[in-house]
Amino acid sequence: MSAVEQVFLECERARAHDELIRRVSASDKEYHFQNWVQGRVEACGLSYHKPGRNTYPDFRLVHHPEGYEVKGLEFPGREADYDSNSQVPTGNHDGREVFYIFGRYPKGKRGVDEYPVVDLVVCHGSFLNADAEYAHKNKSFRGFGSYGDILVRDRKMYVVPTPFALASGTAGLATLIVPTGFEIQSDALVQVGELDRAEADEVVVSYEFNLQTNEMVTRKAPNPQAGKVRSFRAYRSRGAGDSQPVSFAGPRL
Fold first, then answer.
1. Would you state the torsion angle of the CA atoms of residues 178, 47, 117, 122, taken in this order, to the nearest 10 degrees?
2. Local structure of residue 108 (DSSP, 8 states)
3. What is the pLDDT of residues 105-154, one digit of tens each?
4. How far apart are CA 4 and CA 24, in angstroms?
5. Which helix (H) or strand (E) is 5 found in, with range?
6. Cα separation, 82 vs 71, whole angstroms
7. Are 196 and 229 in contact (CB under 8 A)?
């Protein structure tokens, strides 16, 4: 069984048995769901490199060419997209296949430090973005301002649709989404859907920002992979919502 299958099944087991997310402190807004996922990875007996604030993906396995990027979402709340700070999602990074683990949990309430995982989606990074060649770099220049000594830093923030927006039939359940060519080995997983994404006709290749008018202008070029269909399959644990189909929700403009 692949490592991601083990992790997904353990996440579903823990969710079904109400193993709760625990907030360490009131200021802990980023890592409580990551800590929950860390417990699942450890329960599978998988060795990983210690996560850091700027490491990508969050969990990089030692003995398997896989990594997991974790995204926790308050529910109800912002769930159609998420901010990806200086990192475009990808399905392959430094020789590892990258999987994203999205989990939704109730909004925090004063005095409540434990709460359940409402639902989760584990998806291959290529479901979010098929390009594995782009390498993000922060750039800067000096010369701005009245005295010409202010540095302007171009640190890009990417806003990416979540699988909860891209795929219908995921609410309240646990879903695994992998490329069609990914060979599922566990008998505990049942296919519940097929999802196709077609690459866009054009891609953005550059942009300019006018510091006087605050206007941004983008430039596009033909996509060499225009129209190419990327196919994925959705899976669930047997008996855990396997009668609820999953389908692609359509393009997000």
1. -10
2. P
3. 988 777 778 889 999 999 999 999 998 888 888 899 999 999 899 999 98
4. 27
5. helix 3-16
6. 8
7. yes
In DSSP notation, 26-68 reads TT--SSHHHHHHHHHHHHTT--EEPP-TT-SSSEEESSSSEEE
Distance CA 93, CA 98 (A): 7
- Neighbouring-strand partners of residue 102: 71, 121
CA–CA dist 41, 24 (Å, integer): 19
C-alpha to C-alpha distances, 111 to 19, 23, 27, 106, 108, nearest whole angstrom: 19, 11, 13, 14, 9
At residue 25, the pLDDT reads 67
E strands, 162-240, where? 167-168, 174-179, 189-198, 202-210, 215-222, 229-237
Query: What residue type is assigned to position 227 of the chain?
Result: G
* CB neighbours of residue 26 within 10 Å: 10
Distance between alpha carbon 146 and the CA centroid of its chain, in Å? 41
State which residues of the chain have pLDDT below 50: 253
